[in-house]
Amino acid sequence: MRTTMDYMVGNTAIQIRSRKNKITVIDVRKERVRKSILKHLLAALVITGLLILLCFYVVRLENQKVMLDKSVYALQSQVDDMIKGNIVLQKEEQSLFVDYDTIYKKALTMGMKFPKKQQVGTYDAQKSTVVRMSKTKAVGNNSTGKTDKKQFP
Q1: Can you tell me the distance from the alpha carbon of 140 to that of 148, in angstroms, rounded to the nearest whole number?
Q2: What's the pLDDT tens digit per position in 109-148?
Q3: Is the dihedral of CA 148, 150, 134, 132 positive or negative?
């Protein structure tokens, strides 16, 4: 059975507790201060634990950010390499296109002339490897007054 009684001794409040064969006298103000300190200590420990967890979470997020930045940088360098390769391929593609009109005009300005009938020789290619020579037939005049030649009959 537990009985407690509060008494005022002078200007100090005390509490008398009896447990089985033991009687304890407790200063109420000191007990309240001790409980208050314990509550504050417990709150500080909880807050410290939360701050430590928050720090680990922030460090983990920073690590993820760094890893994502590295992967973004790697992907960006791949995109840059692909763009450079695409530019090279476009230049090669443009160099493959032949502008026959420009070549024709340059050849005429450099003195190109159409061959005479005696200078043109044709050949018939069949499935065999033998090449046969034959004479060329004139098809007709075009709008420039030149004669079109039929190369393969």
Answers
A1: 6
A2: 998 888 888 888 887 766 766 666 666 555 555 555 555 5
A3: positive
